[in-house]
Amino acid sequence: MLDIILGVLLLVIAYVMGSIPFGLIVGKMWAKVDVRQHGSGNIGVSNVFRTIGPLPAVVVLAFDAGKGALPVLLAVQVFPDSIWGLATGIAAIIGHNWPAFLRFKGGRGVATTIGVILTLSPIVALILFVLWVITLAVSRYISLASMIAALAFPLLVYFWRISGTYLALSILISVFVIYRHRPNIQRLLAGTEYKIGEKARPNE
Predict the structure, then answer these.
(1) Roughly how many angstroms between the first and final C-alpha of the chain, as a whole number?
(2) In 10 A of CB 146, how many CB atoms?
(3) How far apart are CA 113 and CA 31, in angstroms?
(4) Which helix (H) or strand (E) holds 17?
(5) If DSSP codes are grouped into helix, strand and coil, which group holds residue 32?
(6) What sign does the CA torsion over 49, 54, 56, 62 have?
(7) SS3 of 40, please?
């Protein structure tokens, strides 16, 4: 019973941490800009990069990845060799995607997912990063690179035969990332998606 209570508490902590909108906070503190009013209207790293610049985007990347990594690290300490680590990571991703602090309108969850995967499986994270870089270099679309990496995640988990539960949850994470990129998919099909290096325009 105590384990269940601790596990639920970890999930709540992870969700609350994931809900912290670092993209919005950094945008307002760095340049007095609400990134939701520019470009894709997203609070994630990509829109911060387009709206404000590379350095604040790196700061947001670090914080967004950290809010995925820290709850997982805590869960692993409390429940070694348990699936609670990945479940806690998913709670943090849900918090980023649907944050309570922003009326459940958040980001795509990519940076937070990076933090979760890097903490649980650094080798898988490294392979996904290399795949992301290659896709970005070829296409110049950050969104496409993120979706390709998300699709590859459960395939790598299956290849390494980590566990059936881990595979199921990795598929869930992949679905989250793809689902949150629906506007990007529409823009890719229409040929209006932002390429890396293009400045964000104010929302109409």
Answers:
(1) 52
(2) 28
(3) 26
(4) helix 2-18
(5) coil
(6) positive
(7) coil
131 burial via Cβ count (<10 Å: 0-12, 13-18, 19+): middle
| Per-residue pLDDT reduced to its tens digit, 131-147 | 999 999 999 998 899 99
CB-based contacts of 102, cutoff 8 Å, min separation 6? 19, 21, 24, 43
- With a pLDDT cut of 70, the percent of the chain lying above it is 94
Lookup result for tokens 């990129």: 181
Tokens of 139: 């296409």
Q: What is the pTM of this model?
A: 0.87
- Tokens linked to 125: 């994270």
Residue type (1 letter), 40: S
Chain mean position to CA 87: 15
pLDDT digits (tens, 9 = 90+) for 117-175: 999 889 989 999 999 999 999 999 988 999 999 999 999 988 876 667 788 888 988 99
- Which 3 state secondary structure label does DSSP give 192? coil
Q: What Å distances lie between residue 190 and 40, 107, 129, CA to CA?
A: 15, 21, 27
Tell me the C-alpha distance between 178 and 110, whole Å.
10
Exposure string (b/e) for 10-45, b if CB count within 10 Å is 16 or more?
bbebbbbbbbbbbbbebbeebeebebbebbbebbbb
Rg of the chain over CA atoms, in angstroms? 17
